Amino acid sequence: MSDSPLKNDLLLRTIRGEKTERTPVWLMRQAGRILPEYRAVRAKLSGFVELVKTPERAAEVTIQPVDILDVDAAIIFSDILVIPEAMGLPYEMVESRGPVFPRTVRSASDIDRLKVADISDDLAYTPEAIKLVKKELDGRVPLIGFAGAPWTIFAYMIEGSGSKTFSKARAMLYQQPELADRLLQMITESTIRYLRAQIEAGADVVQIFDSWAGILPPIHFERFSLRYIRQICEAIHQVPITVFAKGAYASISQIGQLDCATVGIDWNTDIRHARSKIGAEKVLQGNLDPAALYADFGEIQQATRQMLDTFGAERHIANLGHGVYPDISPDHVRCFINEVKEYSSKLR
Length: 348
Ligand code: CP3
Hints:
Number of helices: 16
Number of domains: 1
Shape: globular
Largest sheet: 7 strands, parallel
Bound molecules: coproporphyrinogen III
Radius of gyration: 19 Å
Order of helices and strands: HHHHEHEEHHHEHHHEHEHEHEHEH
CATH topology: TIM Barrel
Oligomer: single chain
Structural class: alpha/beta
Helix content: 40-55%
């Protein structure tokens, strides 16, 4: 673990509930295709998966948004789908289609062939990249580690690719709930190990992405998703956790009761409603509409100010309500970041 003191610890002070001179800002998916510099690094390798597995290059693209966009945190460059791969179910990243699993899980015997991930054997490249990033950042900003929520990982492992409905995954919850639980439990244990390894390597905060929370009815979200997220939150105490369950509006109070410091909210969520349901203690992260960054500079500034006014000066980490879209110009991203910095310092 790196012990250089952080020069910019705004994010961590905000997470601790301290009063800060301004609101910290970073973007989900900031390390990626919005930056030509990222595309240049990726073009030198065989593709996305190789980039994820090459610690020196993963570290390089992790730091790019800190240098180029001046965000208040780095997020380690990897993917949530490294967990299925380490469990024995490899993925491919197909240009303009997204992730594809050549093999999927349909039956008990498919699960028998999987294992709880052994991080030092099968997933050492991410902690390795984290160590390199920490060294290179030398305390400039904190580093966020991450993993997918078990339900979202499960959805890809059953479905075999992205989907509007994830019908195969959702069918299993009705047809073979015990089988679903068995796999979800293996994913949960793998994820706990993985997050612990990221923290040992130097991650200052970890975020859990439940990107597909919103396709579950509340009763299934609580039964098949939140329950496993709760296990993760209860197992990890070394660093603060952020839980981002996209679309889980009906369960927002229950999310607020998790043992996590920060709750991420998407752009469909009303900020005041989220605050009233989640309570005053938790830090909220979000939630500008990612499409707002298509607007001109004046409108981006206005939308950003409105968001900052509604969240208020404390216990807020500025971000988008989901990952930045790959065709947004870096100038528009910078406009958002600069406006958060300038306007939020005036709010104090
Ligand atoms: O900057 C960062 O946020 C760190 C890197 C990061 C990536 N994926 C890199 C990536 C993070 C945090 C993720 C998380 C992730 N991956 C999620 C959860 C967050 C979310 O957006 O909902 C999900 C669902 C995935 C799975 C995944 N990976 C999909 C569906 C896709 C294809 C769609 C797309 O965005 O292209 C990916 C590919 C991916 N992951 C890319 C990047 C930079 C693009 C691949 C490329 O470079 O060609």
